[in-house]
Amino acid sequence: AQTVTQSQPEMSVQEAETVTLSCTYDTSESNYYLFWYKQPPSRQMILVIRQEAYKQQNATENRFSVNFQKAAKSFSLKISDSQLGDTAMYFCAFKRVQGGSEKLVFGKGTKLTVNP
Amino acid sequence: GAVVSQHPSRVICKSGTSVKIECRSLDFQATTMFWYRQFPKQSLMLMATSNEGSKATYEQGVEKDKFLINHASLTLSTLTVTSAHPEDSSFYICSATKPDGSPFYEQYFGPGTRLTVT
């Protein structure tokens, strides 16, 4: 079974600075998808960024980028120029490539606080 | 867009009663819908996966007779908590997969329903 580990329960960063959230996973699959979701205080889950395992190039979405190290099974999220609105729980998630019925496996989350 | 709604957003019920939560995909037909439970300050725990017209697939440890899932159409899935007890109090979130040809089969999440059993 796949597992996702987020070793940082809480982190804080000053506004405008950069922060990196860690995620490691365990799988025997060679191809899969990885995701970072954000859950602000409203509790609405929002997709931040996604990565296909067979693509070596790291995904980037504006201020958000990932460092995907397939051999190390590591998938960290870097947030640049942190904003107050980035304050949220961040969940790393794994999904096998098996079609639309395939479930997401979530990590336990990292609570990020951006301080003014 | 891909919007998923849930109703109600909050519900309070008495112990021993049943409560139904609806999950709707508003602007797309969902091939699959998922139901999650989230305790305070914890991650999402998948309860079950449902496909339209089929019986739901429950995760290990989830009581299928207590958490009834009905996926009646491509836009509606319901979760009924039967004979609710205070320990069923939680935040319930649904998500739906949009068949747009994307290999990711991205899950679009509803806003969640807070259930309180008194």
Describe, in plain words, how this protein is organized in 3D.
The complex is a heterodimer of chains A (116) and B (118). Chain A contains no helices and twelve strands. Chain A has 116 residues and is an all-beta fold. In chain A, the strands form three sheets. In chain A, strands 2, 5, 6, 10, 11 and 12 form a six-stranded mixed sheet that branches. In chain A, strands 3-9-8-7 form a four-stranded antiparallel sheet, with no helix packed on it. Chain B is an all-beta fold. Helix content of chain B is 0%, strand content 52%. Chain B contains no helices and eleven strands. In chain B, strands 2, 4, 5, 6, 9, 10 and 11 form a seven-stranded mixed sheet that branches. The radius of gyration of chain B is 14 Å and the shape is globular. The model of chain B has no long low-confidence stretch (mean pLDDT 93). Chain A binds chain B through residues 33, 42-47, 50, 52, 91, 95, 97, 99-104, 106-109, 111, and chain B through 31-32, 34, 38, 41-44, 46, 49, 51, 91, 93, 95, 97, 99, 103-107, 109, 111-112.
Q: Could you write a compact summary of the structure shown?
A:
The complex is a heterodimer of chains A (116) and B (118). Chain A is mainly β.
Mean pLDDT across the residues of chain A is: 94
Percent helix of chain B, as a range, is: under 10%
Major pleated sheet of chain A: 6 strands, mixed
| Range of strand content of chain A | over 45%
Low-confidence stretches of chain B: none
Oligomer: heterodimer
Structural class of chain B: mainly beta
Question: What's the helix count of chain A?
Answer: 0
What series of H and E elements makes up the topology of chain A? Answer: EEEEEEEEEEEE
